[in-house]
Amino acid sequence: METVVCPMGGGAARLYGALTPPLPPTSPQPADANLDPAFCQGRRSSSACPSDPAALLRQCEDALGADRAPRLHRTFTRVTDGDGVPGNGVRVMQWNILAQALGEGLDGFVRCPPEALSWSRRKYLILEEILTYRPHILCLQEVDHYHDTLQPVLAGLGYGGHFCPKPWSPCLEVEGNNGPDGCALFFDRSRYELLDSVNVRLAAMRIPTNQIAVLTTLRCRSSGTRVCVAVTHLKARSGWEWLRSAQGSDFLGHLQNLVRDPAGDPAASAAPLFVCGDFNAVPTEEVYRRFAASPLGLDSAYKKLGEDGATEPEFTSWKIRSTGECRATLDYIWYSRDSLRVDRVLDVPTEEQIGPNRLPSVSYPSDHLSLVCDFSFKEKE
Question: Do the bridges between strand 207-220 and strand 226-233 make them parallel or antiparallel, or are there none, so unpaired?
Answer without folding.
Answer: antiparallel
